[in-house]
Amino acid sequence: MKYKSIFCLLILPVSLFLFSFIQHSGTWTSRFLSINKDGSIKYHPDEKGNTIPDFSGVGYHHGLKNIPKLKVVKTLNPVKGDAGKMIQNAINEVSALPADANGHRGAIFLTKGDYSIAGTLTIETSGIVLRGAGSEGDATRLIASGKGLRSLLKIQGKGKITEIPGTRVQITDQYVPTGAKSFKVSDSKGLKTGDRIILFRPGTDKWIHDLQMDQIVAREGTKQWTGADYNLSYEREILRIQGNTVFIDNPVVMAMDQQYGGGNIFKYEYKGRISEVGIENILFESEYASDTDEDHGWIAADFNHIENGWVTGVTSRFFGYACVSLDGGAKNITVKNSRCLDAKSVITGGKRYSFNNNGQQNLFMDLETTEGRHDYVTGAKTCGPNVFYRCKSRNTHADIGPHHRWASGTLYDNIDTDGEINVQDRGNWGSGHGWAGVTQVVWNCKVKSAAIQNPWVSGKNYSIGLQGQKLSGRLKDKPDGEWEGQDQKGLQPASLFQAQLNARKLTK
């Protein structure tokens, strides 16, 4: 007994020291993953095997290539009057040049000064960069002049995802969890490494019913969801095949469950999609008649039917909708070091989506907004992974997050806003927005307040290390999301995206 007492007296100071050290070091880790000593990540699955997915394979060439610096092949200077025809002619001239081995044609350099544009500029060919001398101070300023609700610059190919006949095979696993990068198929004989495939998750009426989206409290214009409208197509590439197990480049971001139709894969084409187009160092402005004017420039840079493109060092001012908007056919686009400032419109629905994403595997980082509504936002049925990283919003008039109708697989990492981030059942807002999203990860963000809810079925949403008030959401009877470490500073890793990028480098 004497020795036991002496042992307790000795161990007590050590315990107190360790506790004090942990408290004062102020760091903590999430229960959902661990960073190993070598920088690799161990993900901790739930009872069904679901994990937080790897978001690192987004942006230009999945982040595996640096954004290139294309050689200037055409230089333009400001002119009096409308400069739109001059710039469009230069775009058409460079479009006719042969592409090099990397698919690049060259950069059009616009020297500093003002370029008034009465209409819309279009880039419809791969390998072209529109580059200015800067977006601040002595800037290259492209001005959407006069009236007309329009995009100032459209970067757009054509076409759509088209299934290659005879290539569809069934996924045979009863359940493929969120975060998985492999699954079994009925027959892999027609598949090979490098194949571009669609990971197809069918919508079913049973799934809609269990999600309770056929039971939205109706008001005028409310549309109940139906299974046929919620077929989801995720673009992926096969990394390797082992027997009938297929390994893919980007993870499953919504579980594939046989009770809801399971899933398929098939090879696809996207004829007409362009690539390797960049917008650099330009100030976009719109003329406007008043703070609530809506008959003027709406989107500065509007992307669709394109993969592997970029926007860097761009500022927009006074547009009614967005600085950059990526539509459903935009994939592997990096948007960084850019700003959307001082929007001009009525402050209501359908306006001021500062950086808008409806595409796949896109990266938005180091961005800033003022006077927006939905500053970093996804739309209906947006298929991930997608990432918003290290972005700031001030004087915001609505919330950041998935806006409506089931976006899947988005990371909001180190977002700093004086408004809200919400992931919730939006109910009958709009024409029946319903559940905004699943596998939405809000990591180490600073907000005024946030509502993070879990849908009734098919996945979870996460609030980890959030600084700000917790809200109950618009509809109070919905399941709570996965909350961890609210108002607890010192989350490690400070950035999930950066940790995942570092871990991926270890495997290359």
What report would you give on this structure?
- The structure is a single chain.
- This protein has 508 residues and is mainly beta.
- The protein folds into two domains: 60-158 and 273-505, Single-stranded right-handed beta-helix, Pectin lyase-like (Pectate Lyase C-like); 162-269, Beta Barrel (Elongation Factor Tu (Ef-tu), domain 3), CATH 2.40.30.
- The strands form six sheets. It has a 19-stranded parallel beta sheet that branches. A ten-stranded parallel beta sheet has the order 7-10-23-26-28-30-33-36-38-40. Strands 11, 12, 14, 15, 16, 17 and 19 form a seven-stranded antiparallel beta sheet that branches.
- β2 and β3 form a beta hairpin.
- The N and C termini lie far apart (58 Å).
- Mean pLDDT is 94; it is low at 1-24.
- InterPro entries: Pectin_lyas_fold, Pectin_lyase_fold/virulence.
- This is Pectate lyase superfamily protein.
Short descriptors:
Pectate Lyase C-like, mainly beta, 2 domains, disordered N terminus, 508 residues, 10% helix, 19-stranded parallel β-sheet, globular, 38% strand, 42 strands, ten-stranded parallel β-sheet
List the helices and strands and how they pair.
Layout (H helix, E strand, L loop, with lengths): L1 H24 L2 E2 L3 E3 L5 E3 L28 E5 L7 H12 L10 E5 L2 E5 L3 E3 L4 E5 L7 E5 L5 E7 L5 E2 L5 E2 L4 E2 L5 E3 L11 E6 L3 H6 L21 E11 L2 E4 L7 E2 L6 E6 L4 E2 L2 E3 L2 E4 L10 E8 L1 E7 L2 E3 L4 E5 L3 E12 L13 E3 L5 E8 L5 E3 L4 E7 L2 E3 L4 E4 L4 E7 L2 E2 L2 E4 L13 E7 L2 E7 L9 E3 L2 E4 L11 E3 L6 E2 L3 H10 L3
Parallel strand pairs: 1-42, 4-5, 5-8, 6-9, 7-10, 8-21, 9-22, 10-23, 20-24, 21-24, 22-25, 23-26, 24-27, 25-27, 26-28, 27-29, 28-30, 29-31, 29-32, 30-33, 31-34, 32-35, 33-36, 34-37, 36-38, 37-39, 38-40, 39-41
Antiparallel strand pairs: 2-3, 11-19, 12-19, 13-18, 14-17, 15-16, 15-19, 16-17
Protein name: Pectate lyase superfamily protein
InterPro entries: Pectin_lyas_fold, Pectin_lyase_fold/virulence
